[in-house]
């Protein structure tokens, strides 16, 4: 897709994890990460773990400083959002060059983690925790 203001090509991908959804757009640039209008380091609370997780696809391909990443993340917490950004970024990199897919797939970056919170059942305190049994 062509950005009309800057005449640069925009590649996009969507990532999901738990209840988080991240819409990722990448543009050729200097390597900055913007999440919901804030710098990535600030949004992810300067956590090196979240930053490492979010940028894993770029590190695997060796494209650290070649693309600017713009993310619209919503829902869930920072862990889910960081993983959703990772999946969206990997999908966007596959749109750029189909040859990237093989390397990203071998690293497991293109699979969606389907684990979500199990619903609470009636008669129980949580999804599986039962009240204490009383004999009398």
UniProtKB/TrEMBL annotation:
Superkingdom of origin: Eukaryota
Q: Look up keyword Plastid and say if it applies.
A: yes
Q: Where is the signal peptide?
A: none
Keyword Ribosomal protein found: yes
What Gene Ontology cellular component terms go with this record?
cytosolic small ribosomal subunit
Q: Which InterPro entries match?
A: Ribosomal_Su5_D2-typ_SF (IPR020568), Ribosomal_uS9 (IPR000754), Ribosomal_uS9_bac/plastid (IPR023035), Ribosomal_uS9_CS (IPR020574), Ribsml_uS5_D2-typ_fold_subgr (IPR014721)
The protein's matches in Gene3D superfamilies, at most eight in alphabetical order, are given as:
3.30.230.10
User: Could you tell me one molecular function GO term of this UniProt entry?
Assistant: structural constituent of ribosome
Q: Which GO terms describe its biological process?
A: translation
Q: Name one Pfam family in it.
A: Ribosomal_S9
Give UniProt keywords alphabetically.
Answer: Plastid, Ribonucleoprotein, Ribosomal protein
Query: Which family does the similarity line name?
Result: Belongs to the universal ribosomal protein uS9 family.
List the HAMAP family: Ribosomal_uS9_B
What protein name is recorded for this chain? Ribosomal protein S9
Organism of derivation: Laurencia snackeyi
